[in-house]
Every structure is written in structure tokens, then in C-alpha cells.
Amino acid sequence: MKKINIGFLLLAGALPAMAQKVKFTEFDLSNGMRVVLHEDHTAPVVVTSVMYHVGSKDEVPGHTGMAHFFEHLLFEGSKNIKKGQFMKIVSQNGGQNNANTSQDRTYYFEAFPSNQLETGLWLESERLMHPVINEDGVKTQNEVVKEEKRLRIDNQPYGNLIASVFNKLFTKHPYHWPIIGSMEDLDNTKLPDFLAFNKKYYAPNNAVLVVAGDIDPVKTKKLVEAYFGPIPKGPAIERVNIKEDPITQQIVDTAYDANIQIPAIVAAYRTVGMKERDAIVLDMASQILSGGASSRMYKKMVDQKKNAVAVQAFNYTLEDYGAYLTFAIPNGSQSLDQLLADMDEEVAKLQTSLISEAEFTKLQNQAENDFVSGNNTMMGIAESLASGYTFHGNTNYLNTELDLIKSITRQDIQEVAKKYLNKDQRVVLYYLPSKKDEAAK
């Protein structure tokens, strides 16, 4: 969202391939904030980041989009930072910053030259302690968010595909509405609603602060205590605990997108949340099916049969549930039903036969490469540490995840495919350009 590109800083933050365990110290402030410090002098860069355990699933009907709205709103300024100055302060001090929101958390970070550590801590403490949330900021950001929705989703080809799938896959859990919310809800949510949301979720006991990079841990701890220690503890938060009824027969539906000319077919299976080992196994299954040009679905449908211009299987992992999707776009006038049958055939092979030893070796190597590449920058390490604490209750999850990946067997992949990827447990969505194309089914 909000980003200043400074190439030298990004390069400075790059690390050698991670072969050793990531060392860190952690402690809690008296207000309940978890603090994680990672010392690494490879480059003169420091990342300050805060992950709040609040996402779109924590909203209520009629006020969707609030979590993402806050990602914008909290750049408006604070008691000590004038409106529009947050980004300027970052830029003037040689830094970069960004923020993003998911269904489960909101994440803010700054990357600075290491001599600007205190600047990063001050900025994030101001966001938490002294945010300015008023009618002017809400009005300004409401227009910004609505324009983002138009550009990135409503007017983007296939922009509403995931939202259309989730709306059918989840009927009770808040995952069924999109992160950005609806235009109606954005207009109907007023200043008192934002103030209440901030008071409930933007509290130190609902956050983890990670400081990673070229730091002195002793000095950094003192700075953290000075900037964040005085912030009052917030009320205890009751987490979303909504259970979906099992899907016991195939659900078939249609959605329309005026921005596309070529239809698509999606099969979606509701699966387990990220804390479960099966979620990692499903990630590996998706690599077998569509991880690159040598994957099974790609070779069959794009290279050999040439009935698809794109095909993909991916595991959309979230905190409470997951969604496993197979997706294809036809080549010309090819039948969507045939694409679905071809994808189903490859899923069935995973269920009935073990993958080959050669495929498994390649899969393990790819999984390890993906893990290492995701943690080869200071920013990547900071986010992984924050996510480990937020979602697994274990900051050290970063150091154990690779062992978990290596423990997965060919038999695990087969059993997980048999457990979750069944026709009577899924939603099939025909995603069409317009109603006149419904006959394409």
C-alpha cells in the first residue's frame, strides 16, 4: 500500500541463504505487549514491525472492511505527527515502510538505516498511543479505500473470484466476506465505530513488536520500554470461534464478472487452519499439481492437451480454516466441464497412488528453497517471527518449520488428498463473463 522504494536499503537488508537458526530474545512489557529482538549485523539496516492480531474476520456484519481501513487510517498522523507527515518522516530518514491486512492480522513495518532505530520505534509507538482518528481522516480514507476497491478488485479481471468462492465456501464464519469490505459498509461505518474498533483491537496486549537487524539488544530493550511501556493495556479480546457445518455434498454455483472475456472454473475445498500439520502437506500437494511448468496439471492441460491457458492448485491457508482451490482458464472455446474433469483426474491420482521418489525429492528441495527465500531478508525474518508468535503462540516456529516440512512423507500427501479433496466436500464455481455465457457450462 504505502511504500517508498529505496533500492540500496533493500539490498542492504538481503541476507545469505539461511542455514543457521535465527537467534532472538523475547520478553513481555507490563502492558502485555510481546517484544522480539533479533540481532544481525550483516547489513546496517533495522526493521521495526508491529503485528496486531486483528483482521477482517474480527468485523461484524454491516461494518466489513474496518481492519483494512485502519491500515490506511493509522497513517493519517498522531498527536505528535501532523497529518500527512508520517511518510515524509520515513523518507527523510532514509527509510521504507508498508502495511498490509489479511483476514487474521494487520501488519505494519519500517526499514531504516540502523542509526534510525529510535525513529522507527517512535513512529510505531505514536501509531499505537496517540493516533488521531477524526471525521476528516475517516472521510479522506473512505474515498481512498473505495478507489482502491474499484482499481484492485471491482474493475480488475477475476478480481472478485476469490471473494465469490469464499462467499460459498464459508456460510457462517466471517471469512465469507472480503477483506476490503463492501462499498455500502464503508459508507455506513461512522467515527464512533472506528473509535470503538481502535480501543478494542489496537492495544499492546493484542500486538507483537519485532525489532530485527543491526541492533544492540540491551540498548534496544531500554528504548522499547521507554516508547511502548507507558501505553495502557487494553481489554481482553474474545477471539472469533465460529464453526462451519461440514460440506457433505457438492455445491455448484455461478458468478459473473463484467471485466473478463474468458470464463474460469474453480473447485474449492474447505480445509484446516495454519496450525495443523495437514496445512503444510496441502501446500506440498499443490506444488505437485501446479508448481511450475513440469507440474502435473500444467504438463497435461497446458502443454499436452492445450485445453487451458492457465491452471493452478493452491492452498489458501488462514488461521481458523483453509481453502484448497483448483482453478483453470480455457484455451479458446474449450469446455469448462472438461477442464474440471482433467483437474479432478490429477487430484484422484494423488489420492490413489504415491508420488514418485523423483517427484518427492524435487518437492522437498523446492519446499526448502521456498522456505529459505521467504526468510532471506531482515523484513522476511521479522514477519516470520511475528507470525510465529501471533498464530502459533511460538516465536521459535521459524526455526522448527523446516524440520516439519522435511518430516512430511509421500504417504502423508496421499492421505491428506484423500481426506480433504473429495467431490462431496467442495464448491464448484463457474466464473463467467456475463449471463449470456451461462451456456458455457
Automatic annotation (TrEMBL):
Family membership: Belongs to the peptidase M16 family.
Domain Peptidase M16 C-terminal: from-to ranges: 193-366
Entry keywords, A to Z: Signal
Protein source organism: Niabella yanshanensis
SUPFAM superfamilies: LuxS/MPP-like metallohydrolase
Pfam families cross-referenced by the UniProt entry: Peptidase_M16, Peptidase_M16_C
Domain of life: Bacteria
Name of protein: Pitrilysin family protein
PANTHER family according to UniProt: METALLOPROTEASE, MITOCHONDRIAL-PROCESSING PEPTIDASE SUBUNIT ALPHA
Residue stretches making up the Peptidase M16 N-terminal domain: 34-157
Record's signal peptide: 1-19
